[in-house]
Predict the 3D structure of the following.
Amino acid sequence: MYQATFHYQGVATMPFYDAADGTRLAYEDYGTGEPIVFVASWSLASDMWEYQVPFFVEEGYRCVLLDRRGHGGSDRPGTGYDFDTLADDIAGLIEYLDLRDVTIVGHSTGGAEVARYLARHGEDRVARVAFVSAMLPFVMRTEDNPEGLPIELSEAAVKQFRIDRPKWFADRAQGFYATHLGNDVSPALVEQGVRRCLETAPMAGIELWRATARTDHREGLRRITVPALVVHGAADQSALIDLTGRRTAKLIPGCVYKEYPTAGHGLFATQIDQFNGDLLEFVKG
């Protein structure tokens, strides 16, 4: 692995490192002190954490953010959107930067990636973990997971992506932030969120969507021994709380569970002070 920083018209771009399969992955690294690694949601890159990073840097923490393959400034390979490869990508960055006593924070599909990282690479470098609006423990309905959703629903969404992906995101944008419950989100912020999602490679979005629906993380969650925080919005329309957050909290031994009554999936942008405060308390604890 190696790091490089590009310059375009005198402006430095993100550093990157090479994953095991040669994919160039971009990351950001701010501050000093105890490290926090942030893993973004499906179809979002590091910029989604803009309401957390300045806060934690000012609190004395080092914030490291990864753009997963197909997202943000990273390469767009045709393969590698399974959770084993994505977990290895996280491990590669942590090992490349030689991070230790790490707090890993994952949102939505990013939370599922973090769960697979722990299951696959262990907890030697990890001090604690936070699952935020996470797509866990297992979304798809199977014989031993009757609470899950039919795979036909997942594939219906894929069909819509292939017909009119911008409309699919636009139709769900208000629900993402649960604006109907009074969350104060400007039209500009909603528009920005849709635009950021559309910057992701379309095929990467489809393959990651399918992997998220089909991957079972239940056994890995049961084996977590480091302190864990689960944060979820009761009004989450993307990761229904009875299917995800509440079940996840029951599987992780001794976890701290925080439920926000009026929060949707985008609680990182709508409940900024509450979320940042809860995460800071957890990291300090």
